[in-house]
Each structure stands twice: as C-alpha cells, then as structure tokens.
Sequence to fold (173 residues):
Amino acid sequence: MHVHRFEKLWIGLSLLLIAAFIGIVLFGFTVMNLKVPGVETGETVDPATVLSEGPFAKPGVRKISDDHYEVYMLAQQFLFRPGSTRPLTLPAKTKITFHMTSPDVMHGFEVPGSGLNSTVIPGQVATFTTRFPEAKSYGIICHQYCGSAHHNMQGEIKAVPPSEFDESNLISQ
Ligand code: CUA
Fold:
C-alpha cells in the first residue's frame, strides 16, 4: 500500500504529540512530584458528614506553636470558608499548614504570588504547608469549573506581620 509522504508526516507528528503528552504526565508525577491530593496520604473524609463532624465542621485557624498554625478550609459552591465572606487573616513568614476538602464538587485553590495551587476533591483532604513571604493581601481563586457561579468563587488571605496577629483570629476549640 502506498502512503503519501504528507500522510506519513502527519502520522509521525501525531505519534510524536501522543508521546509528548505521556512524557509530560510522567515528568509531572516523577520529577515534579505532583500528586493527587489526599490519595497518596490516605487522608479522607466523608463528604456527607464533613460539615457536621470533625475539624471541618469548624473551619478556621488553629495554633500549633508560636511558629506554626494550621487552617482547616472548605471549598464549596461558591466560596472558600474561611476566606470569601471576609479575608482569612494569617501571620506572614510563619509556617502555615492548610487542610482542605470539599463537601460538594471538585474545586481549585490557587493563591497567585504564593506558589500555592491545589485541586480540592470531595472526600480527599489536601494538606500542604507554606509560609507567606510578605505581609500583604493575597487573592484566592478557584481554578476548577465547579458550577454556574464558578467565576465568582474567590477569596482573600491577609498576611499580617506576626506581631500583629493575635488570638482573636483563631477559632475557639
Ligand atoms: Cu469552585 Cu470553581
């Protein structure tokens, strides 16, 4: 069978493209160490009860030590709790561990300028630790299409100088 040389070229290019896509995925999972949140660590919650039981029933900031705080945050249609109805206040330059999950559909959590970027999956807990380098406001955006008001799903993190961060920003246990 004779295959035209342009056909061969196109077949070659499309095979190359498939190989490149597979290569990019493998590169992400190996060299860049990208993970599906919560799947590797086995941290799971029941989306049906996450709003009424456990730490996500009272989302907010908890103190672990003078240099380490943790935030339990929900991403849900169509807000970040805390973060959307009023800014989430955190100390800058301090170790912050986020725990995130969703009670409804898949959402995204991205904080431009901080390097934070995670997918938030119902049933899985995404956990990551960071320090906000500067005392300033950071925006939060949802980067996964999650429904009719996805484009309005945003929030704010107010990183303040550690000396200005006080206990009133913590949630009561
Ligand atoms: Cu939540 Cu898009």
Remarks:
- The beta strands are 60-65, 68-76, 79-81, 88-91, 95-101, 107-111, 116-120, 126-130, 137-141, 154-160.
- Residues 74 and 81 are 5 Å apart (CA to CA).
- The chain is about 15% helix and 30% strand.
